[in-house]
Specification:
It contains four helices and no strands. It is mainly alpha-helical.
Length: 143
């Protein structure tokens, strides 16, 4: 921001309190403008992230349809050598076995992660507290 020669002279003649007020006002304006710019930038990035996320959701839906199509293909392939009902029953049973295995693995993973409290950190914090109490008691007894 260019200042004219007259403005420069009037600022030199202004009292310090007025210069400080002007500086604070300029700083507040600058912070507001930076906050507005940050909000605009975040909004722009959020819309781009939302667009990308919607593409991932669409891709996941297409993958589910592809998997369903592969399952139908497996049933039809088995139906060549077996009755259609038996082929569908075999494929369904295999899918249930896979689902059961995933449920068991997921349950084991969740059990391994619970309780969610950070046990090691809590244990260390309790040790630290006990150490501080011990040191405090030593200082009190030394007095």
């Amino acid at each position: 921001m260019a200042t004219s020669h007259t403005e420069d002279r009037s600022r030199r003649a202004a009292p310090v309190s007025e210069l400080v007020r002007s500086l604070v006002a300029d700083a507040v304006l600058l912070v507001r403008r930076e906050a507005e710019l940050a909000a605009i930038e975040l909004k722009d990035k959020a819309s781009k992230v939302a667009a990308g996320a919607s593409m991932f959701v669409a891709a996941a839906a297409i993958v589910l349809f592809a998997i369903a199509t592969l399952i139908v293909a497996a049933v039809l392939a088995l139906a060549i050598v077996l009755p259609a009902w038996a082929a569908a029953l075999i494929v369904a049973a295999l899918l249930l076995v896979v689902a059961a295995a995933l449920v068991l693995a997921g349950r084991a993973s969740i059990r391994a992660a619970t309780p969610l409290a950070p046990k090691a950190t809590l244990d260390t914090a309790q040790e630290d507290i006990a150490w501080m109490r011990h040191k405090t008691e030593q200082l009190k007894s030394a007095e």
